[in-house]
Design brief:
With 266 residues, the chain is of the alpha+beta class. It has one domain (2-265): Deoxyribonuclease I, Chain A (4-Layer Sandwich), CATH 3.60.10.10. 24% of the residues lie in helices and 25% in strands. The strands form three sheets. A six-stranded mixed sheet has the order 3-4-2-1-14-13. A six-stranded mixed sheet has the order 5-6-7-8-12-9. A two-stranded antiparallel ribbon has the order 10-11. Helix 5 (122-144) packs parallel to helix 6 (178-188). The longest helix is centred in the middle third of the chain and has 23 residues, at 122-144. The radius of gyration is 17 Å and the shape is globular.
Length: 266
Amino acid sequence: MRIITFNVNGVRAATRKGFWDWFAEQEADILCLQELKAHEHQLPREARPEGWHAFFHFAEKPGYSGVALYARRAPDAVFTGLGSVDGSGDWRDMDAEGRFLRADFGRLSIISLYVPSGSSSAARQAGKMAFLERFLPLMRALRDAGRELIVCGDINIAHQRIDLKNWRGNQRHSGFLPEERAWMSAWLNDGFTDVFRALYPDREQYSWWSNRGRARENNVGWRIDYHICTPVAARAARQVEVYTGQWFSDHAPVIADFGEELHGQG
């Protein structure tokens, strides 16, 4: 099974840059997109490829956020928004921003996730931390209910020093704050695995580069796009590639291949 996650930073812009032509050649089974920046009537024709089951969680605000999940095989169930998972009204604020889709295939749940950024203001950073505090118990509950999880998406956190080029200069910046990194450690110490880092403990590889200066040209980036897995799915991970051969966004697509063990869950 091949699962691609990609923050498109605007699906219309990524389409113009040739993303769907590239995707058609990838032999993927699942595609998770983040930051669509479009409503349904604004989706390019290419964003509904033939032969794919497509699901969307659009933000209420025009030109903002939004996630998608594409599957070759029809899921058994789809959950749109975090409120649809726990049945509470506690997620109304973030669900209005279009940040979560879950597709179930047997015992396997694949999630397209876009964690808020906190870089614009102190208030947004507080909102990001509140999101994280509510999100982790939900993942634990799904795991404890017997579901295997693959959480794909833009987490907006670089976990370790190796996950960003300029870690010394970013210790007080959103995305590399001590409390964010501690939250990530808590998640990964609780039966979840960052499969890229598990496979490649020492590889310096980034998935996002600032548009400022010459960050991309000089590879001054951050690794903030992940596949986070429960144990069976993590053991099935064979390889993870960050594709940088073409540029469709300020992020790069992250491609994960899983072995036969995963098919037994779906």
